Amino acid sequence: MNVRTRFAPSPTGYLHLGGARTALFSWLYARKHNGTFVLRIEDTDLERSTQKSVDAILEGMTWLGLEHDEGPFFQTQRFERYHAIINQLLAQDLAYYCNCSRERLDTIHQEQRSKKLKPRYDGHCRDRKVAPSSDYVIRFRNPETGAVFIDDMIKGRVIVQNSELDDLIIRRSNGTPTYNLSVVVDDMDMGITHVIRGDDHLNNTPRQMNIFRALGQEPPRYAHVPMILGPDRTRLSKRHGATSVMQYKEAGYLPEAMLNYLLRLGWAYGDQELFTRPEMIELFELTQVHKAPAAFDPAKLNWLNQQYLNNADPKRIAILLEQHFRQLDIDLSQGPDALAIVQAQQGRAHTLKELSEISSFWYQNVVQYDPKAASKHLRSTAYPILQVTRSKLADLKEWTTEAIHQVIDQVAQETGVKMGKVAQPLRVAIVGRAASPGIDVTLALLDKETCLRRIDNALEYIQPTKELNFGQINETYVF
Ligand code: GLU
């Protein structure tokens, strides 16, 4: 079979995580079967659909690398086709005009509710042969008996009795076709073989299958993907944090990490965590997607992103990092090459944003001390050690990692303190915090004058109240 899948977002917002995961599953299924992935923009809600949202969705798909083979098709450009199908259904008496007033519908719904029944259309106009005069809608004549069997590729068999369904509106009184009609016409015309979508559409599926059959077509296969929950297991929403895919780009996540994360959300292959694209395509099975909703776990996403950051080409990461530095208003000409930073900071950040933040000290003129680090390491006990370190660093002819390393070794030996007691005050003086790559590397990436100036600032900050000798230092200076 020539597999054809589609992603059919409504352009009423950005590409959110749930949509992206549905798109990923549709894309993977098409790729796995050498099929075709169609992008369709369901923009019939003229009031809520915007071009900005279309662009945002396309941007998100492009960033994730979910390239479509056909489309984007726009439903607003296909109204003529929908009307032709509606007319065909009318001609075959598979649809009919209905002029029931809002008041009448409200009354019957009220009665149904009071009898604890589901509010539904009672078929009043079914056989009244209403003429298309003024205010009317067109309804689909849903079969009254029998049942619809949905052999859902994720949920399994779902059976819905036709007596549960009513005659749904396929054309509104303002002349526009409704969602259920246009989706069926599109899925039919676009030759969609597998409809993979969020399970919030499951209740539409039996109605759509009946329309397919009325049009003389076998419906496609369906796979309804469970929703994504927040960490508190309520439906994922803005109150859980970022839900737009592009917000994750801005926060410094890599698209391949995002894709890997979305794939693993509700699908597993043994205990394998990392999947390359070819592996995803090879190993993904729609039928193995979990039936229960999956909960979003930011810690897991961070872990995955860190893995991808570590394994990616440092040159690529450097280019991406530069963009994040720019957001911090960092002038890259004031410090080392971004590539050198990436190499030095390997494995130390979960996101590009974090990487830019923990690396900004290399470029900034003024070092801000983290209060905790300063109170622990920039104490009077550190003063003489920093002083000795400063003078030895000042004497260095060559400003290299090795030479700096030797100086720190020497200071530790000569003063009789542990290496950490030399390195930590120095680190806080240069970085502002108690964490950075190796102290030698950290210094070597800066120029000598900047390092000496920062040490002087730290010495000034400490201003010891009494002179201490090195013997006392090991006793009083506790890590
Ligand atoms: N346009 C619908 C939505 O964004 C999806 C319809 C479908 O996949 O059938 O929820």
Q: Tell me about the biggest sheet? A: 3 strands, parallel
Extended strand count: 12
Give me the CATH fold name of the domain at 79-225: Rossmann fold
**What is the residue-mean pLDDT, rounded to a whole number?**
94
Describe it for me?
This protein is mainly α. The protein has 20 helices and 12 strands. Among the domains are: 79-225, Rossmann fold (3-Layer(aba) Sandwich), CATH 3.40.50.620; 366-479, Arc Repressor Mutant, subunit A (Orthogonal Bundle), CATH 1.10.10. It has helices at residues 17-32, 51-64, 79-91, 102-114, 179-189, 205-214, 245-250, 255-264, 277-283, 298-311, 314-327, 338-345, 352-359, 371-377, 383-395, 401-415, 419-431, 439-444, 448-462, 470-476; strands at 4-7, 36-41, 70-74, 95-98, 137-140, 147-152, 156-161, 169-171, 194-198, 221-225, 228-229, 294-295. A 3-stranded parallel sheet has the order 1-2-3, covered by helices on one side. Strands 4-5-8 form a 3-stranded antiparallel sheet.
Write the layout of secondary structure elements.
Layout lengths: L3 E4 L9 H16 L3 E6 L9 H14 L5 E5 L4 H13 L3 E4 L3 H13 L22 E4 L6 E6 L3 E6 L7 E3 L7 H11 L4 E5 L6 H10 L6 E5 L2 E2 L15 H6 L4 H10 L12 H7 L10 E2 L2 H14 L2 H14 L10 H8 L6 H8 L11 H7 L5 H13 L5 H15 L3 H13 L7 H6 L3 H15 L7 H7 L3
Parallel strand pairs: 1-2, 2-3, 9-10, 11-12
Antiparallel strand pairs: 4-5, 5-8, 6-7
The protein binds glutamic acid (GLU).
Glutamic acid binds next to loops.
